[in-house]
Amino acid sequence: MKKISFFSGLFFSLLLLFMFFIFCGTAFAQVSSYYGGITPSQGCMVCHADNELEANGKSLYIDEGAYKESVHKNVLCSECHIGFFINLPHPDTKGDPLRVASLICKDCHKDVYDEYKNSAHGKAALMGKADSASCADCHGSHYIKSLKNEETKEELWANAEEVCGSCHEDYWESYSDYYHGQPYKVGFRKAPTCWECHDYHNILPEDNPNSLISDANLYKTCGNCHPGSTKEFADGYGPSIHGLQKGFEENIVLKWLRGLFSWFPW
Ligand code: HEC
Ligand code: HEC
Ligand code: HEC
Ligand code: HEC
Ligand code: HEC
Ligand code: HEC
Ligand code: HEC
Fold this sequence. Notes:
This protein has 266 residues and is an all-alpha fold. The chain is 52% helix and 2% strand. It contains 17 helices and 2 strands. It has a two-stranded antiparallel sheet with strand order 1-2. A hairpin with a 2-residue loop joins strand 1 and strand 2 (58-59). Helix 16 crosses helix 17. The structure holds heme C (HEC) (7 copies). One heme C (HEC) is lined by residues 179-180, 190-192, 196-197, 218, 221-222, 224-226, 233-234, 237-238, 241. One heme C (HEC) is lined by residues 71-72, 75, 79-80, 102, 104-105, 107-109, 135-136, 139, 141, 144, 146-148.
């Protein structure tokens, strides 16, 4: 009798202890996911891994497999989506929370941000111009790949139509000169992508003296690929690079013709 009650006592104490740990564990997990602590991204994925989740006709699905292959696999959802927790409704912030996320990158990429904030895009975006390029407009959001890997860097190199052309459709189209634009568009690796002439984080308009295409700098920019490049060389051929564009902007008849025959591969 005594023996049994000793063992059952021990058994129940152990069971209680065990249950206590389980309880603490679950409570901790819940609290930590609630507060964006240890497993918060899993907390978000309870809903966002559902490929049918949408609001206002826009998909809110996040592909977990692809996210885990991205360079931000260890970054928490809530580090870009500041103020978002696993409870609904999500915060009702002033301004567009997705635009905030597309610029929040500055918190971790300070060096890049320091350049970007003075660029044509950065200045405009930070003043609230929603059509200017944010970090995420050029890089994407959830599935960003490492650029230390040659293959993904090459992929980006070849993607100028989307990276720049999605907004500068006109300059994408007019980038079609015989020596640079046309060979780039058919994948000739030595031809320049947009940011080999314009830079990428420090893009500035032509009339800014620090721009890579300013009067003072253009010949140096060409010189990266054309050793011995001079001002005459740059000024002579430079305008032909987007020549078609300039032609259309300045020549009313051409502009009208292009509109009329828009099916023609101008
Ligand atoms: C209980 C389900 C659920 C959980 C958990 C959840 N979400 Fe959501 N999320 C939704 C729904 C539903 C919407 C659309 C309605 C809304 O915006 O409130 C949404 C919308 C969003 C949006 C788009 C907001 C916008 O303005 O377009 C973001 C970003 C987002 N969630 C991020 C997160 C993050 C980050 C977490 C984790 C910290 C998370 N969600 C957890 C269900 C959830
Ligand atoms: C590196 C920053 C970053 C991280 C980390 C991140 N997001 Fe986002 N997320 C963004 C940006 C930027 C947008 C806006 C994209 C746009 O406007 O096209 C966005 C948009 C969204 C949206 C709206 C739908 C969409 O795809 O545009 C949802 C939902 C969302 N994020 C959920 C999550 C969840 C869940 C996680 C974690 C698994 C997460 N995000 C991690 C930056 C991030
Ligand atoms: C106009 C498009 C554009 C914008 C805006 C932009 N980037 Fe980039 N970024 C690029 C391109 C293109 C590269 C790769 C260039 C190369 O081949 O080395 C790059 C490279 C990077 C790299 C790799 C390191 C480096 O400096 O080369 C990081 C990190 C980065 N960007 C983060 C950001 C962040 C953070 C922001 C916003 C503050 C931002 N980018 C804004 C186009 C852009
Ligand atoms: C919470 C911190 C954090 C935030 C916020 C964040 N990143 Fe990152 N990012 C990182 C870390 C960490 C790495 C990996 C660095 C490495 O591998 O050297 C990285 C890597 C990158 C790379 C690849 C750089 C390379 O040289 O391979 C790019 C591009 C990038 N981030 C862009 C962005 C963009 C765009 C945003 C905003 C939408 C953003 N990041 C937001 C922390 C962050
Ligand atoms: C999300 C849209 C968007 C993307 C993506 C984008 N740009 Fe822009 N870009 C703009 C807007 C808007 C301005 C004008 C900003 C202002 O108000 O000064 C601008 C300005 C510029 C300028 C300065 C001249 C001017 O017209 O003001 C150059 C050069 C430029 N972009 C080149 C590029 C290149 C190269 C890329 C790709 C690496 C790129 N942009 C990606 C929207 C974009
Ligand atoms: C070989 C160098 C070179 C390449 C590559 C190049 N550009 Fe240009 N770009 C120039 C020069 C030079 C000018 C100034 C003369 C002009 O406007 O035609 C210019 C002008 C521009 C402007 C107007 C700048 C201003 O201040 O008004 C934009 C926007 C632009 N380019 C976008 C692009 C885009 C987008 C691509 C890729 C599809 C691209 N460029 C590729 C050399 C280049
Ligand atoms: C990223 C590299 C790169 C940049 C930057 C570049 N080019 Fe070129 N360029 C080439 C390639 C590749 C060819 C075609 C092969 C060849 O003839 O060398 C070419 C050919 C030419 C040609 C015809 C052949 C020749 O060598 O005379 C001219 C003219 C020219 N480029 C002018 C310019 C001017 C002006 C600039 C600056 C606005 C410029 N390029 C910037 C790569 C570049």
